[in-house]
């Protein structure tokens, strides 16, 4: 839910620097934590957080996110409450509410980055377009065996997926872009259906098992990726 209370401002516009959606740029975007203004509203089932929304001069609504406290201090409205969220959390807020939100804007009152809904979807496509063939033989990407195990996460996923009959298995491996980024965790989910109905809550489950400085991504598994994952290890969950 969103606080739409006239959060328009003359200093807010949609001009932003051009961004190249390369893998390294996307990796940094997704691994960072963002400060998001919210307020608590009363609800019958208890208190609920409502994220703030910025309204552009043309009437478009954007979810604001800040990279640090210095940028957050530029927020000209009352700061009821601030929450910390990853890009993937915010991504699904936008994609699950396409008729109300036009996208998200990072550091709206500084060196801003505007990501409209179509661009956010394209980032998803760029992440999922990494092919295992290129990763194993080309200069860009490679997949690795997991460097540690997650037995507690496996137990939690077994209980969690009881609600999802369409989830069949979860594989874990690591991915790295040669010479540019440290390896990050890659969770492959073999399931039927749309990821928008499954991934947002699952992101929060997995976050609790990440060490400081670690990042991860969740992908809907393809047959080729499942073959590669099976070569690198056993699934951490199987129906």
From TrEMBL:
Taxonomic superkingdom: Bacteria
Q: Which residues form the SseB protein N-terminal domain?
A: 26-121
User: SseB protein C-terminal domain location, by residue?
Assistant: 144-239
Name of the protein in question: SseB protein N-terminal domain-containing protein
Taxon lineage = Bacteria, Bacillati, Bacillota, Clostridia, Eubacteriales
């Amino acid at each position: 839910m969103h606080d739409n209370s006239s959060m328009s401002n003359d200093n807010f516009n949609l001009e932003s620097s051009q961004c190249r959606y390369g893998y390294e740029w996307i990796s940094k975007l997704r691994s960072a934590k963002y400060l998001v203004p919210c307020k608590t509203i009363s609800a019958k089932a208890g208190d609920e957080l409502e994220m703030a929304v910025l309204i552009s001069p043309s009437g478009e609504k954007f979810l604001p996110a800040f990279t640090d406290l210095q940028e957050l201090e530029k927020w000209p409205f009352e700061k009821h409450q601030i929450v910390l969220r990853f890009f993937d959390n915010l991504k699904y807020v936008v994609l699950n509410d396409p008729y109300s939100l036009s996208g998200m804007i990072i550091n709206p009152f500084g060196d801003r980055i505007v990501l409209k809904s179509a661009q956010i979807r394209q980032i998803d496509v760029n992440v999922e377009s990494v092919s295992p063939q290129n990763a194993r033989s080309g200069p860009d990407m490679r997949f690795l065996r997991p460097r540690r195990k997650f037995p507690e996460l496996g137990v939690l996923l077994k209980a969690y997926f009881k609600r999802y009959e369409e989830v069949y298995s979860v594989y874990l491996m690591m991915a790295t872009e040669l010479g540019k980024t440290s390896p990050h965790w890659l969770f492959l989910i073999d399931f039927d259906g749309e990821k928008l109905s499954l991934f947002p809550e699952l992101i929060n489950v997995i976050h609790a098992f990440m060490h400081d400085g670690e990042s991860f991504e969740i992908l809907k598994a393809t047959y080729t990726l499942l073959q590669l994952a099976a070569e690198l290890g056993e699934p951490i969950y199987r129906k």
